[in-house]
Amino acid sequence: MPGPVTLDRREGPYGEVVLRRRDRDYEIIANGTFLMDTSDGRSERLLIDAALEALSPDGRSRPSVLIGGLGVGFSLAHAAADPRWGRIAVAEREEAIIDWHRQGPLAAISGQALADPRTVILHTDLVGYLRTTPDTYDALCLDIDNGPDWTVTEDNESLYSAEGLAACAARLNPGGILAVWSAQPSADFEESLRNAGFNGVRTEEVPVARGVPDVVHLAVRPSPSPA
Is the pLDDT score of 33 beyond 70? Predict the structure, then answer.
């Protein structure tokens, strides 16, 4: 099988990002670390579905979602395909990745979603945005690393700290859902979520062909107790 073909390579404020094609699939590489490709997408779709399912019992209408990381576009496309979602915001810090979706090969995945009036692309660093924006959401679906224990850049490590999880909680409406994608389960992260005051902490798995499963960590921001 022929090796990957580099379609674009950019140097940005966070290092190098590369878009490659391998046979029929596309891959995104950041600073030499494989992030994701278009070969599957089940776990990215689970990230969205699990958050919506967790919100369903309280009956809120057209919940809003912030997707952390545009990636290859599977999470955005899946959210936009579901009319139950309201506002769909995506925080992506790499201008190159946004360009690949708006004008490049990844438009085949995300084109309809980007044209959806519910969709807003925020060209911003997710970690900084969570700490500074006044906006709140019903769900945060975060997929900016290979998991809490395997971050793409050192700056991202703070997202999974007590301070970072407090910022996530502050951006969630009461009863809102935090969903975090990971390439492997993390019992330590589950404990961090509980220590940060989240309820209903659980992990859903997506089996892969080889090795440990991909997972989505889920947690609920508690609603205030009645006076």
Answer: yes
